[in-house]
Design goal:
The chain has helices spanning about 1-10, 15-20, 30-40, 50-55, 65-75, 80-95, 115-120. With about 120 residues, it is mainly α.
């Protein structure tokens, strides 16, 4: 990777999604992470946490992280894009866990589709 960046881009990491995803092993999530964390450009890196929480909350109803990214780009104002990954990853690791989400301590459960559906039968 370093040799490619050195040779093709004169040692400078590309700062646009289309060029980044052409690099070997770089998908949309990684490219979006580079844009957000290296260049502070608005993008939405969607990992499993962002995908899971977006669906649980009911922000999206998608099957893949790529679909989630596209839907979030439509639904979330661009000024928040830089914060989405950090916020959802932290929340996904600590509160809205994949197995046994901690709904009891969740501060946004009243807005959560997952919580509402889970407690509708109670």
């Amino acid at each position: 990777m370093a040799k490619i960046i050195d040779k093709r881009y004169r040692g400078r990491v590309p700062d646009d999604l289309d060029t980044l995803v052409q690099l070997p092993g770089v998908g949309r999530k990684t490219a979006n992470c580079v844009l957000v964390y290296a260049f502070e450009q608005p993008a939405i890196p969607v990992d499993i946490h962002v995908h899971r929480i977006s669906n649980r909350l009911g922000l999206v109803d998608t099957k893949t992280p790529e679909e989630t990214e596209q839907e979030l780009m439509i639904k979330i104002k661009k000024k928040y894009w830089l914060e989405i990954n950090d916020t959802f990853v932290m929340y996904g690791q600590n509160i809205c866990k994949p197995i046994s989400p901690m709904c009891g301590v969740c501060k946004i459960k009243k807005h959560c589709k997952f919580f509402k559906s889970k407690n509708a039968s109670l």
